[in-house]
# Entry
Amino acid sequence: MDSGESLGGYRLISRLGVGGAGTVWLAEDGGGQRVALKLIHPALAHSQEARARLIREAHTVNAVRSEGVAHVLDVEVDDTQPFIVSEFIEGPTLASRLQSGPLPPREVADLAQTLSDVLESVHEAGIVHRDVKPANVIMSSRGPILIDFGIARGEDDEALTGVGLVSGTAGFASPELLRGAPPTDKTDWWGWAATVLTAATSRPPFGRGDAQLVLKRVFEGEPDIDGLAPEIAEAFLHALSVHPSARPTPMETLEIVGDMDAWSHDVLTEYLNVEPDEDATMVFPTGETDGEATSVLPVQSTIPPTEVLPQQVVEEGVPPTQVLEVQPSSLPPQPPMPSPTPGGYTAYPPPQTPPYPGPVPPGGAYNGGYVPPVPMPLAFPERHPAPVPIIGVLMMAALAVLPLALGQNGLIGGAGFLLFFALIGAFNRRLQRRRWRVGAERGSDIPMTLLALPLLLVQCIIFLGFGIFVGTALAAGGWFFTQKVRDDWPGWELPLRVLQSQYPYEINVLASDSFWVYVLWGAFVLVLFVTWILPSGRSLREGIALTARGLLQPVWARIFLGIMLVIAIAGTLMVATTGMLEIRFFM
# Structure
């Protein structure tokens, strides 16, 4: 597919990345919200396993209650081209950031703490990510965001990895995972330590080169800790131990990494590449020899020579060695070690799945304490339309013209418009919050939200009233200030007469001096703008954005609306100030 094409209601904008499983696109939904759309590779589009992975990824990531993950907004597996839609997180990956060098110690400590909090939330949801690495961490404005839960596993999820393969990244996958052991929390904490180490050195945690060589270092517990302070290096050495039981807790590692004093060893020498002082090489003058040749000393050895023992003769009568039959073992078979394939890649054994009992007959009890997995609901993060600030300001300016043109009727009409848009925004917010709490979209969502309309109406009136009160206070201050500018200040009577009149253009003050028309319009604009921009105007802003983006999806349509609003404002003010309307003077 190409940029500009649409898929399932989403318009593709540009490619964000390409992987073996598919392509990630920056896309835009019908409401103008930017999202990340992962499109499955055409070769995998008809694979039921690939579709199952999409569903599991959506279930998995939305079960995590944390702002440190990119939640799934939509998933489509029934179409010929399956895809999954996630929040679009703007920012470079940690891997891209480290191309310019390691992070400062303070940023390394902050990264370690934030990722630790995110992983805690992931594990509390019963999920193991299995692929924590710099490429899966986005350095966003709100902090590090963990992405790509495509190979994450829940406690009761069925394994989807093919036979002979282990999902993970060399250098960031723990030794026990590479050997085929089931993924656990310790698997993620090992990847976390490898990621933090990479952030501190900007080098792969177990070096570069052939995958077999990297795996050898992983299995031998030899991370690249060159250049780090002894205490910091030792902390990473223990955190990346081959044996899970020998690794410290994440909190213990954080205590050392977060200690800035532990980083300060020969910092100036390290950054300036200054080597320690060495004694200068001394050149001795050539002396006369006594004619004797240099003697070669015999090799001194502290190892005793090998003692040759006499040959032992087997006595007769001793029974020969017997070859016993292989006895079955009660222990589960151990997976083989990784082996190279002809293509240069490394094939890993599959994870060993514990033997679960078979189906339970109706009414029977589960054996061995095994409880069947319960499907996780697909959570719905609250979705709000992208703001339309220009359209919003122009609409407030256009509504401010209504009292000048229609007086009391314009005041009532403008208030009705505000309440209408605020109700739309409040309704959408309540609907999205209901789906987020339940974790699913149900047919009763809209009817139940409609029943709450009276309450939403009262809330909107209160919030709009507060905004109008604040805006009116500011506008009144500005109106009072105009008496310092003009000697013919009409006092407080003029705005009140305009708001109470049926035909405000008949008021001779407005008809005779256009200055007061613009001043009154500016005061009304200020009232409405304050009402719109205050936190209490959130429902109003969302209602306008939802309506504008829902009815006018193309950008050109919204531009056209903005132009029409400007023309309407300019035309009304021109009519009011040039006497094009019939004006009857009376006082």
In short: The chain has three domains: 6-87, 94-270, 389-578. The first strand starts at residue 6 and ends at 7.
